[in-house]
Automatic annotation (TrEMBL):
Keywords: Isomerase. Belongs to the pseudouridine synthase RsuA family. It comes from Persicitalea jodogahamensis. It holds the Pfam family PseudoU_synth_2. GO terms for biological process: pseudouridine synthesis; rRNA processing. Its EC number is 5.4.99.-. It is an enzyme of class 5 (isomerase). Gene3D superfamilies: Alpha-L RNA-binding motif (3.30.70.1560), Pseudouridine synthase I, catalytic domain, N-terminal subdomain (3.30.70.580). GO terms for molecular function: catalytic activity, acting on RNA; pseudouridine synthase activity; RNA binding. PANTHER family: PSEUDOURIDINE SYNTHASE FAMILY PROTEIN-RELATED (PTHR47683), RNA-BINDING S4 DOMAIN-CONTAINING PROTEIN (PTHR47683:SF2). This is Pseudouridine synthase.
Amino acid sequence: MLSQFSREGEHATLADLDFEFPKDVYPVGRLDADSEGLLLLTNDNFFKTRLLDPKQRHFRTYYVQVEGEITEEACAELAAGVTISINKKKHRTLPARAEKITEPTLPDRNPPIRFRKNIPTSWLALSLHEGKNRQVRRMTAAVGFPTLRLVRWSMDHFELGGMQPGEVTEINK
C-alpha cells in the first residue's frame, strides 16, 4: 500500500482503508510499495516534525529478511554506518543498531518474497534515526545481503505489535 491518499496506478493507497480519516491527516514518513509495517498518520505537525527530525534521535526499527545468513561482521558494519549512494551522491549513514534475530511472527506477505531452495535467508532488526530513500535496502546491499522483505516494526515507542495489514488503530494525543 502506498503511503498516500491519492491514486497512483493500480497500487492500493491509504484511501482504500476502511476508516474515515479527517481531511488534514498525513503520514509520518513513508513506506515504498515493496515495504510493509507500521505507518503513523497525524494532523499534528509538531509531532510529525519531532518524530522525523534526525537530531531528535527517534529510532525507527525495521525487521529485515535478507538473502543469505547475515553475519556479526555485517551487523557491526551496519551499526557503524555504511556508505550508500543517494541520487548518485555518496552518503555515509549515521550509526544505527543492528542485530541478527530469529524469524519474527508476521502476517504472510502478499505477494510472497522470492524463494530460492539453495540460498538461505535470515532476519535482522535494524534501527535508524534517519530516513533516506530506500536506505535500509541500500544498507543491507552495501554489506552483501540484499533485502527480500522489509517490515517497519516501530517508530519511537509506537509498535506494530499484532496489527494486521490494513488495520487502523486510533490513538489519543
